[in-house]
Amino acid sequence: MSGLSQSLVDELNQRISAVLVSLEKRQQTALPDPRCDLLLATYVLGLTTPFYKGRPPEQHLEAIRNYLVRVMPSERVAEALLATPADGDDWYTSSLDPIEAIGRKDGHALFVRYVGADRTAAIQTNTLDRK
Known about the structure:
Number of strands: 0
Strand content: under 5%
Structural class: mainly alpha
Radius of gyration: 15 Å
Oligomer: single chain
Shape: globular
Order of helices and strands: HHHHH
Low-confidence stretches: 122-131
């Protein structure tokens, strides 16, 4: 993201990768699990929210998509962004809000460190440089 420092983008990517590794360890299967992808997308939503507060939702969604394609194929990203927990899957349904809250907490800490509590720095552009 041009409006964010490279060190912040790197730290966001590191946190996303760490959460992905944690989810994959809990999953304990070689095949991708759409439920884990949904949990990761939910975490990234929370993580990036402080940087997109007050901005059009489309810009935030594009940033989420761009962060996720760094760690999973674009087809899985598209599915994760459209996914909802299956009826009766109470564990995943009840996990979404806490996962998003963890992401928001992490994102807020990064926001304060890199942007400032008074929002003195703003995002200039909302596209990620894809690797």
